[in-house]
Structures are given as structure tokens and as C-alpha cells.
UniProtKB/TrEMBL annotation:
Cellular localization per UniProt: Cell membrane
Bilayer topology: Multi-pass membrane protein
UniProt keyword annotation of rRNA-binding present: no
Pfam families membership: BPD_transp_1
Organism: Allosediminivita pacifica
Keywords: Cell membrane, Membrane, Transmembrane, Transmembrane helix, Transport
Residue ranges of domain ABC transmembrane type-1 in the record: 70-259
A GO CC term attached to the entry: plasma membrane
Protein name: Carbohydrate ABC transporter membrane protein 2 (CUT1 family)
Membrane-crossing segments per the record: 7-29, 69-93, 105-127, 139-159, 180-205, 240-259
Family that this chain belongs to: Belongs to the binding-protein-dependent transport system permease family.
GO BP: transmembrane transport
């Protein structure tokens, strides 16, 4: 590697450290302070470490609202990701294997979901009309609708790298269309499926705006909405707020760290042929 390459690499690492690591350290330090010390919002070490006391206070706040929020977020995330994988793979397979005018129009409609901003008020009206407003399964369908375009895009691109001869050989052996997909094609989609599971899980788990719009009510609280527990117009418990941020940030961060290589592999594996 040339000297210029080393310099660029060092600057990149420095930039990543400043952008990602320093804020995390700042949150961790202030999460271990008392309320008075944390209100200063500085990098000084705590005069008295109260990390465990703050953690217990956050978990017990508002009748263990954080535990309920974790349960709701996990239900929404798992339900939405399962539906995204199933329907995204099936739609991507049909759009790639059966090119026609109808499939091209359907693909453009799916991609439009990545470009057109969601209409909140009409969506609430539809949810209220169907009895899905303020329900977890309604929120699951919302997350599926918002993530389906991206999922179809990845699956369609990846399926384009799988030879059609595999489909034809399975059909010659007597396999039905659904058997071709589930027994031949779907097992080959493991890299992109893992990428979609990780990316969409982090996105849905960290979603703040959609549960705020479509899932009101204390019983429907999600992890991101628990930030309101310690901050209001007149009173802010900054130490507990930082502890809450730490607790809801660590799980997605660990997932991203451990599956980073799989994410990159799945995103690039379908880039050779679209």
C-alpha cells in the first residue's frame, strides 16, 4: 500500500472514531452519573459512579415500560421481517424469472416505494377503517409496506445471478412451480436473505416515527418511544435518558458488528447481474 493509501486509511479511521465512537463514549459516561452531574453534558468522569442505580431506575420506570417496549419492538420486528423475507423473495423471483410488461410495471411500482414519501394521514384513515390502528399487527403491515420495495430490489438482483438452468432441470424432474422456488431457489438466497434480515431488523427496531404516528397508547410503546419517559418540556433526567439510550442502542449495535461482513456480501453479491 502506498503512503497516500495509509494516510487515507488513517483519516477514515479517525473520522469513523469521531463520528461513531466518541458519541457512544459520551453516552456511556453520562449514563453512569448522577442527575446533577449529567445535566452538565460534558466529558468529565463521574464523581460518583451510579451506573447500576441508573440502570435499575430506567428498567423500573413507569411500571417496567422498557420491558414492555422491548416485547412490542421484538414482536413487530420479527413479524415484519418474516413477511418481508417471504413476500420479497416470492415477488422478486416472479419479477426476475417472468419478464413482461406487467412485471416491469409491478417492479416500477415497488421501486416507487423507495422514492415517494409516505402519506401519514391517509394511512391512518385506512388503518382506522380496517380496525388495524393502534394494533401491533397493523404496525407489522406498515413496516412490511415500507420495507418491501428495498427487499424486492435486493432479491430480484440476486436471483438474476442464479442460472435459469436450475429451474428448468427441476421442472424436467417433475417439480411444480412452488417446489422450484422453495426447494431449489430459496436455499440459494441465503446470503441476501441474511442481509435483509439484519438490515431490516435494525431499521424496524430503531424506528421512531412510524410507531409514533400509527401506534399510540401506553400499552403499545416501543423502545424508541421510551426516550420520552425521561424528557419533557420542564423536566429532563439526563442521566436516565442517557442510560435509556444506551440500553436501546446496544442490541442493534451488536447485531451490526457481528453480521457486518454478511451485510456487505449480500449487498454486493447481486450487483454483477441485475
Amino acid at each position: 500500500m502506498t503512503r497516500r493509501g495509509y494516510v487515507i486509511g488513517a483519516l477514515s479511521l479517525l473520522g469513523a472514531f469521531v463520528i461513531f465512537v466518541i458519541p457512544f463514549i459520551f453516552v456511556g459516561i453520562n449514563a453512569a452519573k448522577t442527575a446533577q452531574d449529567a445535566s452538565q453534558l460534558d466529558f468529565s468522569l463521574p464523581e460518583r459512579w451510579v451506573f447500576w442505580e441508573n440502570l435499575v431506575a430506567v428498567v423500573q420506570a413507569r411500571d417496567y415500560a422498557l420491558l414492555l417496549a422491548y416485547f412490542n419492538s421484538i414482536v413487530i420486528t420479527v413479524g415484519a421481517v418474516v413477511l418481508l423475507v417471504i413476500f420479497g423473495a416470492m415477488i422478486g423471483y416472479v419479477l426476475q424469472r417472468r419478464p413482461s410488461r406487467v412485471s416491469r410495471i409491478a417492479y416500477m411500482v415497488a421501486l416507487s416505494g423507495l422514492m415517494i414519501p409516505p402519506a401519514v394521514v391517509p394511512t391512518i384513515w385506512v388503518l382506522q377503517g380496517t380496525g388495524l390502528f393502534k394494533t401491533l399487527h397493523g404496525m407489522i403491515l406498515i413496516q412490511v409496506a415500507y420495507g418491501l420495495g428495498f427487499t424486492i430490489l435486493l432479491y430480484r438482483s440476486f436471483i438474476g445471478t442464479i442460472p435459469r438452468e436450475l429451474d428448468e432441470a427441476a421442472i424436467i424432474d417433475g417439480a411444480k412451480p412452488w417446489q422450484v422456488f422453495f426447494r431449489v431457489v430459496l436455499p440459494l438466497l441465503k446470503p441476501v436473505t441474511l442481509t435483509i434480515i439484519v438490515v431490516q431488523s435494525i431499521t424496524i427496531f430503531n424506528d421512531f416515527t412510524h410507531p409514533l404516528y400509527y401506534l399510540p397508547g401506553r400499552e403499545n410503546i416501543t423502545v424508541q418511544l421510551t426516550l420520552y419517559n425521561f424528557q419533557s418540556q420542564f423536566v429532563s433526567q439526563m442521566n436516565l435518558l442517557f442510560m435509556n439510550i444506551l440500553l436501546i442502542t446496544i442490541p442493534p449495535l451488536l447485531v451490526f458488528i457481528f453480521f457486518n461482513r454478511q451485510i456487505v456480501a449480500g449487498m454486493t453479491s447481486g450487483a454483477v447481474k441485475g
